[in-house]
Structure formats: C-alpha cells, structure tokens
Amino acid sequence: MDKNRVIIFDTTLRDGEQSPGASMNLEEKVRIALALEEMGVDVIEAGFPIASNGDFEAVEAVARAVKTSVICGLARATKGDIERCAEAVKPAGRGRIHTFLSTSPLHMKYKLQMEPEKVLEKISESVAYARNLTDDVEWSAEDGSRTEHDFLCTCVEAAIKAGARTINIPDTVGYAIPDEYAALIAMLFNRVPNIDKAIISVHCHNDLGLAVANSLAAVGKGARQIECTINGLGERAGNAAMEEIVMALRTRPDLLPYKSGVKTENITRASRLVSTITGFVVQPNKAIVGKNAFAHESGIHQDGVLKHAQTYEIMTPESVGLNRSSLVMGKHSGRAAFKAKLKDLGYELGDNAVEDAFTRFKDLADRKKDVFDEDIVALVDDAVVRG
Ligand code: KIV
Ligand code: ZN
C-alpha cells in the first residue's frame, strides 16, 4: 500500500451508537453500512457482538451485506467475547476482531483492579486467541493517551508479538492535545522494536473539541489508520468526525500529504442518513455538513462569492455532495446577492422592479432574521399583482 494512504475506520455503528439515545435497529445499521461501503470506507466497525443478541445479529447482517469493506467487531479481552465476535464477523469477505484492554494506571487500578503484569499477560493471551480465529486482529490500549510510556511500549510490543496487525492508541477520554498526542505516537515509533509489523491507529474522543486535530497530528508522526464517525457521533462529546478528517486531507495536501480512499462526494448523503436514522440533528454551523457550512449571509461575503467562489470558500460544495453554496438572505445581504437570488428563483426583472423589490426586501429583513425564498417570492409576486 502507498505509504501515505490513511485507512479510514468508521465506528458510527459501534462507538457512534454509544451516544446516549442514538440506538439503531438492524435494518438501519445495514443501510448505514452500505452507504459507508459505497463511500469507500476501508473498515466498518459494526458493533459489539457480546453486548446483546441484537448487536450480534446486526454485526452478522452487516457482514453478510457488505462486500468490499473490512467488517470489524469489538471484543473485550475474554475468550467468550472474542469467540462471539469471530462468529458475528464470519460471513464477511474480510472480517476483523478488535480486542481491547485498559493500560492506564487509573483504569488498571479502579476499573480492572488488575496489576500491570496481569494486564500484560491478558493482552498476549487475548490477541493470540483472536489470531487463532482470524488473521486480522486489532488491539487497542484503552486510555492509551494516559498510559505510562514504558508500560505502553511493553504492551504494544507484546500485542504485536502475539499477532496483532493493527495497534490502536485511543485518546479514550479526549484529554490529549495535538502536540502531546503526536509526540506519543512518535515515541512508540522510536521505542517499540517490532512496530513496523503493525499499522498504528488512532481513536480520538472529542471532549476538548480536539479529536480531529489530534488524529491529524498523529498521522504526521506515522499513524496510518484513523478511527472516526459520521457527524462525529460517539460516546459523550463524540469521536473524530470523518467528514472533517477526509476534507482536511483533501483540502490541505500541501501540509497533509496523505490520502484516504473516501469518495468525499458521498459525505452529505451519509451525514443526512445518519442524522435521520439516529434523530441526532447536525448543528447548523458544524464544519462540512452543517446547514450553514456553505451558506453566506453577509453582503460582503455574498458579493465576493458571486465574483469568485474561492474568496470565501476553501472547498466546493460539490466536493462534499452538495449542489452549490446557498446565499442566505438577511439584513446583511447586498444588491448583488439579491439579484442572484431573484435569478435563481426564476425572475427576470427590469432595474426599477429590482430596486423596488430590494427596498422592500431590506424592510422585511429588518423585521425578520432570515428571509426565506418563499418570502422573496411573496414580495415580488405581490409587487407584480399591485402593478
Ligand atoms: O474510546 C475507546 O478507547 C474505545 C476503545 C474500545 C477502542 O472506544
Ligand atoms: Zn471510543
């Protein structure tokens, strides 16, 4: 594989579903998985098969339906979890078992109540067990970003030795900042002797709003798999948003010379599908997929965009699957935008009529925050009726 190719691992159906209130049924999960496959996502984490029969059946159904992407299931470091996961992903053309164990002092002491030596032993055992059931095993150091460095190196080395092909270093609680997280990944490349035998993956949560920045910083230090979700869905403040990651790679090849295989033109469709199915409304000013992401309200911006789109747009709406940027009419809109809007709406008015309509539009905009297309149609039609 091209050394600058970044594997996109989507976990909308697993970590995304862990957003309180975002559960999806089997048929909905299959629809989302097919949209992800069509988009060119490399790995789809379809669920946590041991969690419930419903989860198991959904992972199995996704594994049957999807033909090209790798289908992954999550498993704790126990034989029961790993076997159930192997069974669920079995119908997939390419199945992956993703097993994990916490490695930070806090998690080992309070959550696992296990000594580090025992944790290390369980890592080797669970990865080797999973490797007996499939070739494609990923191991995650849960709370990896808060793990003591010497111990993290030892754990990663052991997981690779036991057969893990992908090593994931999650920022489970979204605590890291970009320089620190990048340094952690660089440290692993410098210190773990067999690191080149595995793909290093990142899985960043967004508690400080840094999930995408952390993921991209880690890619700069050699990570080649990014775990992410559509619309940034996920536990608490969510995961790194896939649409932001792939559009950053597409928009800034000068500073981010890495490629994903995602067809960015499918982004808007996938975002709307996930939002409709989960009932999670995308905030209007959300990067890439928010309703205002390509909307221009101020007169100066509207005038600029009408003269040359790049004045205020760093990517085209078409590149994310939108037809065109929208001019949102409001009190800051100028004559040029108003004329363009009239043209869009199918009106061809003489100069006096445009002037008259523009004056009445400005009066309306003073009273009403957003002036919708229907308002403009109403005010122009009203003028025509009044003669
Ligand atoms: O955030 C996390 O650490 C996880 C792991 C299970 C990969 O979701
Ligand atoms: Zn997570």
TrEMBL record:
- Name this polypeptide is given: 2-isopropylmalate synthase
Q: What class of enzyme is it?
A: transferase
List each copy of the Pyruvate carboxyltransferase domain by range. Answer: 6-268
Q: Tell me, how does this one assemble?
A: Homodimer.
**Similarity comment: family membership:** Belongs to the alpha-IPM synthase/homocitrate synthase family. LeuA type 1 subfamily.
State the reactions this protein catalyses.
Answer: 3-methyl-2-oxobutanoate + acetyl-CoA + H2O = (2S)-2-isopropylmalate + CoA + H(+)
Q: Which GO terms describe its biological process?
A: L-leucine biosynthetic process
Sequence positions that bind Mn(2+): 15, 203, 205, 239
Name the gene behind this protein.
Answer: leuA
Q: Which GO terms describe its molecular function?
A: 2-isopropylmalate synthase activity; acetyl-CoA C-acetyltransferase activity; manganese ion binding
Q: What does this protein do?
A: Catalyzes the condensation of the acetyl group of acetyl-CoA with 3-methyl-2-oxobutanoate (2-ketoisovalerate) to form 3-carboxy-3-hydroxy-4-methylpentanoate (2-isopropylmalate).
Look up the domain of life of the source: Bacteria
Please state the Enzyme Commission number of this protein.
Answer: 2.3.3.13
Which cofactors are required for activity?
Mn(2+)
The Gene Ontology CC terms held by the record are: cytosol
Q: Which UniProt keywords apply?
A: Amino-acid biosynthesis, Branched-chain amino acid biosynthesis, Cytoplasm, Leucine biosynthesis, Manganese, Metal-binding, Transferase
Question: Which pathway does the record list?
Answer: Amino-acid biosynthesis; L-leucine biosynthesis; L-leucine from 3-methyl-2-oxobutanoate: step 1/4
